[in-house]
Amino acid sequence: MLPIELVQVASLLVLAGVSLAQVPPGHAALFPEGLSVLNTRPRSIGLNNMQGVPFGFTQWAFGTVPQVCYNAAVDDGYCNVYDLEVYDVEYDDCAVPWTFCRCSDSPLSIEAFAGRVGRLPVAARQYARFFSSYGGNSSAFSFRNDITFFGPIEGQSVYIHELSHNLDRLYSPPDSLTSFSGTDEYANAVAADSCSPDDYAKTSYAEHYAQTSVMIAYDVTVGPIDSVRNTSCMANAFNAARKHLAPIWQFNEVGTCTSRLSEDDSPRVCMGPEAPCPGDPVRVASSDSESDPEGFRWAPVVESVDDEELERKRRAEREAGMRGYAEIA
Predict the structure, then answer these.
(1) Over residues 313-328, mean pLDDT
(2) Exposed (0-12), middle (13-18) or buried (19+): which is 170, by Cβ within 10 Å?
(3) How high is the pLDDT of residue 99?
C-alpha cells in the first residue's frame, strides 16, 4: 500500500494483525525523497517509460458489475454503483482478459489506466485479478490479489509497488501463511543492511519488500539502479528479493501468461430487471426496501463461465472494440 497519511498505514497494519513492533530497523533512507524519482530518472527516462503491450477493451453493458467491485462501491462507499464502468481489457500477451472497474469520477481514463497496467510485464501482471480506479486523494492498495487505485495515479512505481504485494504472497514459503517479507530470511537480510529504500519502507517488512521490488524493476527494465543511487548499503535485502523478482520484472517480447489468476469466484451482480444476465431469471430489485432506500442492492446472479456461445460473443466484441496501446501516458 502507498500512503495518504502514516496514521492510516498504522491502522491498516493493526487491522491486518501485524504488530507495529514488527517493523524494519530505522535505517537511513537511500531515497529520502521517495521512489517516485525513479519514474523519470535519469534524463526523463525511467519507470514511466517501461515498454508496454498493445491492448483492446470492451465495456460491459450497463447493469452488471463484478461482485468485488459492487462490494467496493456499496459497502466501502468508493463510488455510486450506478457510476461504475466495467471493462474487459485484453492484452496481446494473454488470451484471458482482465476486468477493470472504473468510477466515473476517476481522473484516469480507461485508456490511461489500462496503459499503465499494460506496462507491467505479463509474468508479473498475471498474478493480479481485478484492477479498479476511483476518485479521491492519491493512494492505492492490494487486497486478495485485487488492486485498487484512488486519484490521479500515473507514476509507474505505484503500479509496481502494489503488484509487488501480490508477488510477496506468491513467494511465501511452502505450507506457510506468511509472505516472503514475513520470513526470518528477509528480516535477517534487512537487519544486516545499513539503509532502506525510503522512509515508507520502514513502516513494515511488507512495504520494505514492495519498495525494494520497485528498485529491482528499475534495475532490470530501465537500467542499473546503481547508476541512480549506490545500493550497496542494502545489498542483503536487495539480493534476497532480487532472486525471485528479477526474472518476473524482466520484459519479454514473446512472454505470455502461464499462471493467470482466475476471476471466477467473483460473480456478476445484476442491478435491476433490465440487466442483461442471460440464463438466470432472478433479478430482484430492493429499491423499495426501507433498509436500502437508494436501491443499490440487487440479487447477485452468477453467469456461467462455461457458456461457449457467451464467450464467443465476448471475444467477437473485444476484437471489434476499441484498440489502444500501453504506451499511453
Answers:
(1) 31
(2) middle
(3) 96
